[in-house]
Structure prediction request, 377 residues.
Amino acid sequence: MSEQKIAIIGGGVCGLGIGWRLAQAGCIVDVFDRGEAGHGASWAAAGMLAARAEAEPGEEALLALNVHAQEIWPEFARELEAVGNTSIGYRDEGTLIVAPTRDDAEQLQFTYDYQKSLGLDVEWLSAAQVRRMEPYLAPGMSGGVYSQNDHQVDNRSLSLVLKAAYLSAGGTLHEQTNVDRLVTEGGRVAGLRIGEALHEADTVVLAAGAWSRDIQGLPENVQPPVRPLKGQMMSVRMDPKFPLLRHVLWAPEGIYLVPRLDGRLIIGATVEEKDFDTHLTAGGILHLLRESWEVLPGIDELPIDEMWVGFRPTSRDDAPILGPTKLDGLIVATGHHRNGILLTPLTSNAVSHYILTRELSDEIKPFGQDRFHSNRN
Prediction:
């Protein structure tokens, strides 16, 4: 057991997950969130666990991290659901990547060959096989790739259950609470300034997503190079008894469709360098609807359920920033880009393990903040 005093800035799924693990170990843990915990990027996400589908050349180290995270997800889901006695909507039907045209098929073949060269378990499908898996897809598909181990989870259920698990483990949650600044003393972390009060802490975890760089009092040499990457998303409502789609579906132009058991169909997402612009735009929604309708024409009859904007916390190399910093007592867990939900179990386990033991897990060693400083000329 440990009675370390830990303060975590950010109550998204990673902050809550780290807090849950530390509270389980007997630490005194306080999580601070500027809004409602779990309702930032964690709430806006689609919940895809798509390490293989998103594999790109040049990101082999990140792929290894993502695949490892994917492998521990089923056990993490079982443990969390047992603690919360509530489903988090984990589904393992797999992910389908489709090529509507011959040009799309040529591009997909290139990606498929790359994935196979890395030993990833993906399967090439003929047009007929694609239609058998998803009969409501548009006719004339040229082919597809099936990734049976790319799953999904209901990220909003995950957020709520993680919050409950953290609280039941003895953690304290401060919502609608701004952290005014990080307080240091003698070259190490001393705590957080909350209004006029000092909240003392032995260790501070910076897990504030796209807002991580903006915390006052961070020395320049530990400010994480994280920026917001805006994404517009929407959902439509299917009949849950007769869903138009059963698998997570990736279409050209970066569009994905994620079916939920309750009938919601998540459609995402735009990728925009617009800082913290919260506006939905006609062009953004048109893009989502047009590209998704091209592969699943039946959506034009479905009622619109919701539309929203989220902010991916994106680092310079699109990979997470995990582990200790040059400031003693300050730990970072941010910059997850598109993989925050996927990396939640790994981030929770690895960061909490470091805080408890001061041992850095091998899987996160390549993703420390020092990689950005060492690359400077």
Q: What stands out?
A: The longest helix spans residues 60-84. The longest strand covers residues 226-237.
